[in-house]
Amino acid sequence: MSHFRYDDLVQKALIAVVREVLEDVAANGIPGSHHFYVRFRTDHPRTRVPDYLKERHPEEVMIILQYQFWNLKIFGDYFCVDLSFSGVRETLVIPFSSLTAFVDPSVKFALQFTPSLDEPDSPGKKNNNADQNSDSSTSSGDGDGKIISFDSFRKK
After folding, report:
1. In the structure, what pLDDT confidence band is assigned to residue 117 with cuts at 50, 70 and 90?
2. What is the CATH number of the domain that holds 10?
3. Which residues make beta-bridge pairs with 113?
4. Rounded to 5, what percent of the chain is helix, strand, coil?
5. What is the residue range of 36's domain?
6. Nearest CA to 8 among 137, 139, 144?
């Protein structure tokens, strides 16, 4: 390796944030008014969702973890959660590498990811980066990476 893949390192660090939050929720429940919007790729090779959900959302779907979810379990590179769809409880298997966004609107916190569909066990392998929907992200010019502006992370 002739250079650091900062985009990979940032992606892994941000996924670690999501993993830690979900581990805490699995152990202790959701504190206060926190709740999460979790967007992920349904076409990721290791995502497991009911067929009817994948038919309605062939590429991406958002779930909400707030009041009615059960059996949240966190594993090394994925998590499972039971949700109710039209009164039927279903288990979803969501690889962390399939995430496209994690939002906690109660504290105005958001992370955006670029999932890897080619290499599901290795987030960030194919020109992936993690950034906040920031218009100030610009190409570094060498076509090999991206400059990430941290202005969008700062409180105004």
Report:
1. low
2. 2.30.30.220
3. 130
4. 25, 35, 45
5. 6-130
6. 144
